[in-house]
Design goal:
Strand order of the largest sheet: 1-3-2-6-5-4
CATH architecture of the largest domain: Beta Barrel
Number of domains: 2
Distance between the termini: 97 Å
Helix content: 25-40%
CATH topology of the largest domain: Ribosomal Protein L25, Chain P
Number of helices: 6
Oligomer: single chain
Low-confidence stretches: none
CATH class of the largest domain: Mainly Beta
Order of helices and strands: EHEEHEEEEHEEEEEHEHH
CATH superfamily of the largest domain: Ribosomal Protein L25, Chain P
Largest sheet: 6 strands, mixed, barrel
Number of strands: 13
Shape: elongated
Structural class: alpha+beta
């Protein structure tokens, strides 16, 4: 299940207050919507939002917004930033309940890359084709990430997205299920590995060949043997 982040918010009671004044006070304006309830305008401290945004999985976890004694389960849907300094200037949160059906991209976490058979023992190289995967699940079952174990991937093989091990209650999105299966991570030969194989093939071929000088020596040896027999 996804980890949980808590953020303190306040409802914007004075809707006539200009947003640039809010930002000068160290706050970020935002909106809270969804779950069949009216949208409300909110604000939260910029430093709290910046800290939350440092988490790679922040867009794929349930966030608890606290307003006094009230608490809202939400997803972070969008953050607008100032292009000049990357400071957040507006944020959108979507309310969810425990049973809300979600379809969203969840990060992939690759493990045991260094102990991969195809890399460690067979000279291959891993190619990670996806950083995230689109999943469907309830808000209660939302995973923070999907773990992909690379240890048993052999050279010229792959882990396909249909073969991913997913937590209970989580499945690939209908978009992926209706499409063609695709590799998530694969192990292929490196240029160095191919060069070594080519050298081995060449050497094996040369050992089985007879050079012209060797053939001439054999012919002259046969002629000499025939002459000796005639002399006898």
């Amino acid at each position: 299940m996804s980890s949980s982040t808590e953020l303190e918010i306040n409802l914007r009671k004075d809707l006539n207050e200009r947003t640039n004044l809010l930002r000068k006070k160290g706050n970020v304006p935002g909106i809270l919507y969804g779950d069949n309830e009216d949208s409300v305008k909110i604000q939260l401290q910029s430093k709290d939002l910046r800290k939350a945004l440092e988490q790679p999985s922040i867009f794929s976890q349930i966030i608890n917004l606290k307003e006094g004694e009230k608490e809202f389960k939400v997803l972070l849907k969008d953050v607008q930033v100032n292009p000049a300094n990357d400071e957040p200037i507006h944020v959108d949160f979507q309310r969810v309940s425990g049973k809300t059906k979600l379809t969203l991209d969840v990060p992939i976490k690759y493990i045991n890359e260094d102990s991969c058979i195809g890399v460690k023992n067979q000279g291959g190289m891993l190619s990670k084709n996806k950083n995230d995967i689109e999943l469907t699940c309830s808000a209660d079952n939302l995973p923070e990430f999907i773990e992909v174990d690379c240890s048993n991937i052999e050279l010229n093989s792959a882990i396909m997205q249909f073969a991913l091990i997913l937590p209970e209650g989580v499945q690939l999105s209908q978009n992926l299920l209706n499409g063609q299966d695709q590799p998530v991570v694969a192990c292929s030969a490196t240029r160095a590995t191919l060069d070594i194989e080519e050298e081995v093939e060449v050497v094996e071929g040369e050992e089985g060949e007879v050079t012209e000088s060797e053939a001439e020596q054999e012919d002259s040896s046969e002629v000499s043997d025939d002459s000796e027999k005639q002399g006898d």
